[in-house]
TrEMBL record:
Pfam families with a match to the protein in the record: UDPGT
Protein name: Glycosyltransferase
Family statement drawn from the similarity comment of this UniProt entry: Belongs to the UDP-glycosyltransferase family.
GO molecular function: quercetin 3-O-glucosyltransferase activity; quercetin 7-O-glucosyltransferase activity
Record keyword Transferase present: yes
Enzyme Commission number(s) from the entry: 2.4.1.-
CDD domains with a match to the protein in the record: GT1_Gtf-like (cd03784)
Coiled coil feature spans: none
Length: 461
């Protein structure tokens, strides 16, 4: 029996694709079992998950969890990952090795703390990157940027004679660094560590650099993406010598595999509501499960823009004051009959519904993949992390959606009209359909072959 342990990062958007990968591995292989080791506060919310050959195990974190919809804060989670969880995982792996063995540990690279743990146990390790290859490239080049003097030790870009000129840096195009194709039109501030505030930037940069240094020793990295994401461009990540990059994203989009447990209870009345709407008429809105709450004035702008669009809309907005404080007084009554607001939606079922015409999103990678899988045009409003790179690919590289310039009522209304109407809307739909055909066609065969290569690597170890 091949026994594999998965260690995902502590977020819904990381646990879900690793569960899907686990299910894909055991689906056609009777001799494989997967244990997905999650932090205790996630296990309390998802512990009811059951699947043939796949089980959840709880890693104590020492983090206070008050329960409810919101998990503990990011700072507490990151501290637990480096200072409390390693010894707990090492104990778990040691016990499993005594009970029958562990064939391999698959580590989400954002949970890179688990790599030295598995190394101490003498176990084979494979990395997992939950996003696209381009976002991995954005952090994998950090050592090179440091060595060439393009970036300081705190992550600040030094693009003019080694001088940090903030007004120059902020909107500087990154084409001359040859990290991405010029077609992507990425700016310096879109890099995942360049967050607001010098202290948080330095901490985030150190976090990414630690990931890159730990990942250097890995022989294989599994990517939740598809081959050809750069549309045939030559800007590809050049991995360390001997490191294997395996794209498996298209396999994980299988409808059977998408039915995994969520940390939140989805409102199933969404589907009944969508059944009553005209085809391709509904705007679906969701800003994901992990992103920090959007400021009240921005929620107000979205609310008024959706109302002004005159179109039916379904908005997944957490039922928490931090998310809903910006809704105008009496808004639910005002949009009743045309708009529906729920705390959490069954997203995959929503996106595949014929009534949905576009998706206003935070540009989280799982949401981008799901939107492409179901042929839905996107309006991107990135919030943090890799969202900005994902948005740039959607809007500029693939032309499968547009970037929302702000949450202003007029911008929201204008972007909805652009995507849902006229020649631009038709052109966007054609691009989305082409990508959908690619990731549900030949790319699936490549992904399945890569899963087989992964298993062969384990069997030959």
């Amino acid at each position: 029996m091949v026994s594999i342990v998965f260690v995902p990062f502590a977020a819904q958007g990381h646990v879900a694709p690793m569960l899907q990968l686990a299910r894909a591995l055991v689906a056609d292989r009777g001799d494989v079992s997967v244990t997905v080791a999650v932090p205790d506060f996630i296990h309390r919310r998802m512990g009811q998950y059951r699947g043939a050959g796949v089980s959840l195990a709880s890693i104590p974190t020492g983090v206070q969890d008050v329960g409810g919809d919101e998990p503990p804060g990011a700072a507490a989670i990151v501290h637990a990952m480096e200072h409390h969880m390693p010894s707990q995982l090492e104990g778990m792996l040691t016990k499993k090795m005594l009970q029958g063995g562990v064939s391999c540990v698959v580590v989400d690279l954002l949970a890179s703390w688990a790599i030295p743990v598995a190394e101490r146990c003498g176990l084979p390790i494979v990395g997992f990157w939950v996003g696209m290859q381009a976002t991995y490239r954005s952090v994998a080049v950090i050592p090179e940027l440091l060595s060439k003097g393009f970036v300081s030790g705190s992550g600040t870009l030094l693009l003019k004679d080694g001088i940090n000129e903030d007004h120059y840096i902020k909107d500087h195009d990154l084409g001359d660094l040859h990290i991405f194709s010029p077609k992507v039109k990425l700016r310096a501030k879109d890099l995942p560590w360049l967050v607001s505030g010098a202290v948080s930037q330095k901490t985030r940069f150190a976090f990414w650099l630690e990931i890159v240094n730990r990942a250097k020793s890995l022989h294989s990295i599994i990517l939740n993406s598809f081959p050809g994401e750069d549309s045939g461009d030559s800007y590809q990540y050049d991995p360390p010598w001997g490191q294997q990059i395996l794209h498996v994203g298209p396999v994980l989009l299988s409808e059977d595999l998408k039915k995994t447990t969520s940390m939140w209870q989805a409102d199933q009345t969404c589907i009944d509501w969508l059944d009553k709407q005209s085809p391709v008429s509904v705007i679906y809105v969701s800003f994901g499960s992990w992103a920090a709450p959007i400021e009240p004035d921005k929620i107000t702008g979205f609310a008024r823009g959706l109302e002004a669009s005159g179109r039916p809309f379904l908005w997944a907005l957490k039922n928490h004051p931090s998310w809903r404080a910006g809704l105008p007084d009496g808004y639910a009554e005002k949009i009743a009959g045309r708009g529906k607001i729920v705390s959490w939606a069954p997203q995959d079922d929503v996106l595949k519904h014929e009534a949905v015409g576009c998706y206003i999103m935070h540009s989280g990678w799982n949401s981008v993949l799901e939107s492409l899988r179901h042929g839905v045009r996107m309006i991107c409003y990135p919030i943090c992390g890799d969202h900005f790179i994902n948005c740039a690919y959607v809007a500029n590289m693939w032309e499968a959606g547009i970037a929302l310039p702000s949450s202003d009522e007029n911008d929201v209304k204008d972007c909805v009209e652009r995507v849902m109407e006229g020649e631009e809307g038709r052109r966007l739909q054609e691009k989305v359909n082409q990508l959908r055909e690619m990731i549900t066609g030949d790319a699936v065969c490549v992904a399945k072959r890569n899963l087989n290569l992964f298993m062969e690597g384990i069997n030959n170890n």
